[in-house]
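Question (not urgent): is this output format expected?
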Amino acid sequence: MKSYTNTISSMNEQTMTLSRRHFVASAGIAPLALGAAGTLLSPATAQAGVMDILENDNVLGDPKAPISIVEYASLTCPHCADFHVNALKNIEEDYINSGKAFLIYRDFPLDRYAFQASVLAHAAGKDRFFAVLKILFEKQAEWTAASDITAALTKIGNMVGISKATFEKNLADEKLGESILTDRMVGANEYGVSSTPTLFINGEKYEGSREYEVLGPYLAGI
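Got this back:
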C-alpha cells in the first residue's frame, strides 16, 4: 500500500482501474444522474442537491434530524478509515444516536479494490451495510496488505455471512457497479469531490479538520 502523509487521499494520487464494462455502463446513465436534460446543475442547485437522499444511499440515523452529514469515501483510503474508526464513532454517540444528526454515505472508490470492498458492503444489505463498512475500515490495513486482496475481502465476507458465491454474484451485478461508480462520478462532476473523505454538512462542503476535537464543536455550533 502507498504511504500517505497528507490528511486526505486525492484522485491525483491513485488511478481508478475498474473494468471497462463498468465504466461504459456508468457513462451510459450519466444524463440521468446529471439531470433530465443531461446538463450540469448550477453550483447553487448542486450544493443543495447533495443532501437529497437517493434510492441507493445508505443512511445512518434519522433522516429527519436537523444536521445532515454527507460523506464521500473510499474503502482503501487510510484517512477515511481513520475518520470512521475515530471521529465517526464519537459523532455517532453524541449526535446520530441522539437524533441531532444523520449521515449519508456515498461511494467514491479510488481504485478497483475500493470498488470491490464497496460491493461487499452493499452485498450485506441496507440493514447491515454500516456494520460491514465498519469492519472493512477497521481491518483496512490487513486486507489491503494481502497478497490477494479479493480473497481477503472474500474471507471478510464469509466472516459476516456473505458467501463467496454471493460476493461474486454482486461483483458481476452491473446495476450495482453502475450505482457505485455513478456516486463517484456525480460527486466529482456535480459537487467538486476530488479527495477522500469529503464531507458536506447541511449542504455546505466542510473544509475543516476531520478530527472529532474540531468537528464535534463545529456540529455543536450549528
